[in-house]
């Protein structure tokens, strides 16, 4: 099921992350236009409709029924993702959804059923997969240059200045789904799985609250994941602290060599070669790249890099990590 350009987008949620998405659409005005926006906050809705000249809705269940909308872009708090996805799919709209896809195994089953029944395209907004260093690393891995993947490591940590006055829904597990790990920690999780090339089977984790003690959830996490292809992944993520200088953003070790990156420069060292290969790239707007790819998928019928299938697998890692932290033992990952 393809869409004629320009794709008519309905933006669901006009809060902070919507800024990055709107900037992305502004780079391809001949290919996509935001024609409608839904937000429950009257002030936000008024500001956004004036800013982009779009039709405004106070309820996303009304926006998804708009015949002038081809696809929706969901930029809501975490706990509202599932109902918005299901409503959009039931209305026959294609979907770009911010992280995480949803919050529970039960919600994941509902999402899968709705998307399958409607036959629409769902793309998970895993923007870091569009980093040039990540794309090149995946190309190297998939070429077989590293051989079988043994180990993957990812890191995403920064000193977050949240406080009880500005943290909002993220401070509460009922609306966020957890703490830092299901938020910022979601990025190194999907990156870990992407680079491993496998599907997660078992997880062991340790969660900590070092500094943001007013949160209901953790502010830091360390997670080990065993994948079905034999590779093992390790990630570190935090809002409590910045990673130490020199820490790799990601690295992969395989039977024939390794690669590592600070997020911009990729270094590849094969055992059979004396010289290290270095690939440098200028930074790009990963949100704009993600949105452009979403539009291309709708235009051509191409499969997105990550659909609900990968989104559910990533959620499986996260839920198993929370279970492991609770019990102190390794946890099995739910079937995707």
Automatic annotation (TrEMBL):
One protein family per Pfam: GFO_IDH_MocA
Keywords from the named record: NAD
SUPFAM superfamilies on file: Glyceraldehyde-3-phosphate dehydrogenase-like, C-terminal domain, NAD(P)-binding Rossmann-fold domains
Keyword Cell division among record annotations: no
Domain GFO/IDH/MocA-like oxidoreductase: 135-259
Gene3D superfamilies the record matches: Dihydrodipicolinate Reductase, domain 2, NAD(P)-binding Rossmann-like Domain
Domain of life: Bacteria
Annotated ranges, domain Gfo/Idh/MocA-like oxidoreductase N-terminal: 7-126
Annotated protein name in UniProt: Gfo/Idh/MocA family oxidoreductase
Organism: Brachybacterium halotolerans
């Amino acid at each position: 099921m393809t869409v004629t350009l320009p794709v008519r987008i309905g933006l669901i949620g006009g809060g902070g992350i919507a800024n990055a998405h709107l900037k992305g659409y502004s780079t391809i005005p001949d290919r996509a236009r935001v024609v409608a926006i839904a937000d429950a906050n009257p002030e936000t809705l008024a500001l956004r409709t004036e800013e982009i000249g779009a039709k405004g809705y106070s309820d996303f269940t009304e926006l998804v029924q708009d015949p002038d909308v081809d696809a929706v872009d969901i930029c809501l708090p975490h706990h509202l993702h599932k109902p918005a996805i299901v409503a959009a799919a039931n209305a026959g709209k294609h979907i770009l959804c911010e992280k995480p896809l949803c919050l529970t195994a039960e919600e994941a089953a509902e999402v899968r059923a709705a998307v399958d029944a409607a036959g629409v395209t769902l793309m998970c907004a895993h923007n870091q997969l569009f980093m040039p260093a990540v794309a090149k690393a995946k190309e190297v891995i998939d070429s077989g240059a590293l051989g079988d993947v043994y180990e993957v490591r990812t890191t995403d940590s920064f000193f977050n200045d949240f406080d009880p006055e500005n943290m909002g829904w993220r401070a509460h597990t009922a609306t966020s789904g957890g703490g830092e790990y299901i938020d910022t920690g979601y990025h190194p999780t999907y990156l870990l799985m992407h680079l491993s090339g496998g599907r997660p089977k078992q997880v062991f984790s340790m969660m900590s609250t070092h500094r943001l003690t007013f949160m209901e959830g953790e502010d830091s996490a360390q997670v080990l994941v065993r994948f079905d292809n034999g590779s093992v992944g390790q990630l570190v993520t935090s809002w409590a602290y910045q990673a130490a200088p020199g820490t790799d953003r990601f690295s992969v070790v395989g039977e024939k060599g390794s690669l590592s990156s600070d997020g911009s420069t990729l270094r590849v060292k094969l055992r059979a070669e004396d010289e290290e290969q270095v690939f440098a790239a200028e930074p790009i707007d990963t949100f704009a790249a993600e949105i452009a790819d979403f539009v291309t998928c709708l235009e051509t019928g191409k499969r997105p890099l990550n659909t609900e299938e990968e989104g559910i697998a990533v959620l499986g890692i996260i839920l198993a990590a929370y279970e492991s932290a609770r019990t102190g033992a390794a946890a099995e990952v739910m079937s995707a």
